[in-house]
Write a structure and sequence with these properties.
With 403 residues, the chain is an alpha/beta fold. It contains 12 helices and 15 strands. The strands form 3 sheets. It has a 7-stranded mixed sheet with strand order 7-6-8-9-10-14-15, with helices on both faces. A 5-stranded parallel sheet has the order 2-1-3-4-5, with helices on both faces. Helix 3 runs parallel beside helix 4. The N terminus is likely disordered.
Length: 403
């Protein structure tokens, strides 16, 4: 064999080996294309034919956090709120939600903002709740609502009235009417009938609700050219108000507006009566409990409020009767607001797609014209309540419509 023949044979073998390699490579590519094609078809199928979402099964037990002032300055108010909550809880578990049962996990705010924040953090981070009922006061709510909003947990305060507390975010709601709404409508109603032109105001300067309410009153007076002769202040721990009331008496105002927390109201009424003050006293959220404690000194006092025990609103008389039978007393507005808050929450849970905080938040925001003991109820875009307000007066030892 010549060298030339050897080279030809080598080239021919090389061509055959190259052909085999190219054939194998083409086969591998073909298989890869098929695999990729099948995978793509599978993904397209998943995109064009999504699985239908399943509604969450809401049967079972839902834990609800509760934050109330069970000790400290507002302990007695907190106990009445707790009674209102528990009465509603029992009624709802027996009838309202069918297979869904609510369970309360109760924490004490100790009547302080710091206590409310600690209670919110415990309920959120240790108990894992999606909803909290509370806190009670505006100071507590101002401190604790940001905790709920930051953690995207729904919070509903039954009784905090200072303005703008719910405007911080979409997870927080309130049952009471805001101070600016209450003051404006209340002044309009009482000024028309009493015709006062010269007034005095008095408020607790260490309480957010009281200070904000006095500010709202001052704004309402300015709007109708009512002159404020003096504004007197006091502290949460004060029990002697004679100095402030004596200065007010010397100016002889047509009416006296008092913004205070429950422990202070009856004391102010009693001491004003002892000083011989005869001008009408118009007081924030005066309750049947305050009237009972003040006795004859409460006669003629006026308040702006959204509820009366004799109202014929849906379910109100049954509520008053059941509360009286259960606790041996007539409910006040704090117990009533707490009772109502549970029913509002129950309505949201019933309407929500699931029991997570976002679903409940959305259902709360959509509540409109709900029948409650306050009458037709809704939330505005800030999460504040909308319902009819009333002016009441103490006659014959009882709160009655101011007419």
């Amino acid at each position: 064999m010549t060298v030339t023949d050897s080279r030809l044979l080598t080239a021919d073998g090389y061509k055959k080996e190259r052909y085999k390699l190219m054939k194998s490579f083409i086969s591998i590519i073909a298989i890869a294309i098929l695999i990729i094609g099948f995978s793509a078809c599978e993904r397209v199928s998943q995109i064009t034919q999504p699985s239908m979402p399943e509604m969450e099964d809401k049967s079972g037990e839902i834990s609800i956090g509760v934050v109330l002032p069970l000790t400290g300055q507002l302990a007695s108010t907190g106990q009445r709120m707790k009674q209102g909550l528990e009465l509603a809880l029992n009624e709802i578990n027996n009838a309202q939600l069918g297979n869904t049962r609510l369970k309360f996990i109760v924490e004490d705010s100790m009547s302080t903002p710091e206590g409310a924040v600690a209670a919110f953090n415990k309920l959120i981070h240790e108990d894992g709740v999606s909803v909290i009922l509370g806190p009670a006061t505006s100071d507590e709510t101002q401190a604790a609502f940001p905790v709920a909003q930051e953690n995207q947990v729904v919070a509903i305060s039954p009784t905090s009235g200072a303005r703008d507390l719910s405007a911080i975010g979409d997870f927080v709601f309130r049952v009471p009417l805001a101070t600016n709404i209450v003051a404006l409508k209340g002044v309009e109603a009482t000024h028309t009938k009493l015709g006062y032109q010269r007034v005095a105001t008095m408020y607790n300067e260490t309480d957010l609700f009281s200070t904000d309410r006095d500010t709202a009153l001052q704004e309402a007076f300015t709007a109708i050219d009512v002159k404020v002769l003096t504004t007197e202040t006091f502290l949460s721990d004060d029990t002697n108000f004679s100095a402030q009331l004596t200065r007010i008496r010397a100016l002889n105002p047509d009416a006296i507006f008092v913004s205070a927390l429950p422990p202070e109201k009856s004391g102010i009424l009693i001491q004003a009566h002892e000083l011989g003050i005869t001008a009408p006293i118009i007081m924030s959220s005066l309750t049947s409990v305050d009237v009972q404690v003040a006795g004859a000194a409460a006669e003629g006092a006026i308040t702006f409020i959204g509820w009366l025990s004799t109202d014929d609103t849906p379910g109100n008389q049954a509520f008053v009767q059941n509360y009286n039978m259960t606790y041996g007393m007539t409910p006040d507005v704090f117990a009533t607001a707490s009772y109502t808050a549970v029913y509002i929450l129950a309505e949201a849970i019933k309407n929500a797609e699931a029991t997570d905080a976002i679903s409940i938040r959305d259902a709360l925001a959509n509540i409109s014209d709900l029948d409650t003991v306050f009458g037709k109820f809704a939330f505005n875009t800030d999460g504040d309540a909308i319902y009819e307000q009333k002016a009441l007066i103490v006659k014959d030892g009882m709160l009655q419509p101011f007419e």
